Each structure stands twice: as C-alpha cells, then as structure tokens.
C-alpha cells in the first residue's frame, strides 16, 4: 500500500467539533464563575458553593477551569479521522485503538454530496453504525454519501466535501 498514489488526503481534529467546544467552554465558564463567586462572596451574599472549614475551596474551581481550557486547546492537535483516497479504495483511520476502515470503490453503487441537517451541533463519530448507515464525522457542514452492493451507506463528513466528491465521482463507475 505504500507505493499507491494518494489522490486525496484530509485530517480532521477532535478539537474542531462545535458541540465539544461548546460543552468545554460552558464547563470552563461555570468553573471560573464559581471561583469568582467564592472569592467575592462578601459583596454577593451567595453561599451556593461554600464548603465549610475550607477557605481555599474556590481555588479548586479555578484550577479545574484552567485545566479544561488547556485540555480544549490540546484537543485541537488530536487527530480524529484521517481520510485517504487511493485509485481503488478509501482508507479511514481513527485515533488510538480505532480500526482502519477500507471501502472498496468498485463496490459502490451511488455517490452524492449533501449537507447535514440544519442543526448547529453534530457530535464527532467514527464508524458509528445506526440504521444501516455508517457515519464518520468530526467537523464541517457537508458529507459524501456512498452506497455499496451490500446495502451499506457510508456518510463521510468532510471540510473539503466538494473536492472529495470531485475526486470520487470519476472513479466510481455507475
């Protein structure tokens, strides 16, 4: 496989997923706001987060908020999906313990490029089987849908969906 020519390559990183960014940001804001309230509880008479006999309890929220922000920044470098298109197949590689997925292009019956539903948040998935559809997504608004002879539908999310479609369209014989 090393001597094959790569026609298309795309890397998608875990830290770029909108849903994950919103969740991590909300948690960090909550922690930092809790720290602020615990340090300034004299000016605000709110003792929601007060822990008895521990004057440094707010510092835990501060450290936790900073750790969440650092984790969020580090996730922008963690590879989630790597898509490689060769002449006769597509290789989808996940991170860490995920298996490589090889899709033979000579078994594909149809290809189309579509957009995800108009929701703001899509969770990142790799090789998710749901109702006959196998999904691969990290970020982006478009995906390529491939149907094969075994009635499997592959939805490959991409930030470069039009480029991927333009490369796959001439290869797939319909």
Describe the overall structure.
The protein is an alpha+beta fold and 174 residues long. Helix content is 29%, strand content 31%. The protein is built from three helices and nine strands, in the order E-H-H-E-E-E-E-E-E-E-E-H. The strands form two sheets. A five-stranded mixed beta sheet has the order 5-8-9-7-6, with helices on one face. A hairpin with a 7-residue loop joins strand 3 and strand 4. Helix 1 runs antiparallel to helix 2 (57-74). The longest helix is centred in the first third of the chain and has 22 residues, at 18-39. The radius of gyration is 22 Å and the shape is elongated.
Descriptive keywords:
174 residues; single chain
Write the layout of secondary structure elements.
Layout: E1 8-13, H1 18-39, H2 57-74, E2 79-85, E3 89-93, E4 101-104, E5 108-115, E6 125-130, E7 133-137, E8 142-148, E9 153-158, H3 161-171
Parallel strand pairs: 7-9
Antiparallel strand pairs: 1-2, 2-3, 3-4, 5-8, 6-7, 8-9
Radius of gyration from the CA trace? 22 Å
Q: Which H/E pattern describes the elements?
A: EHHEEEEEEEEH
Overall, the morphology is elongated
Strand content: 25-35%
Low-confidence stretches: none
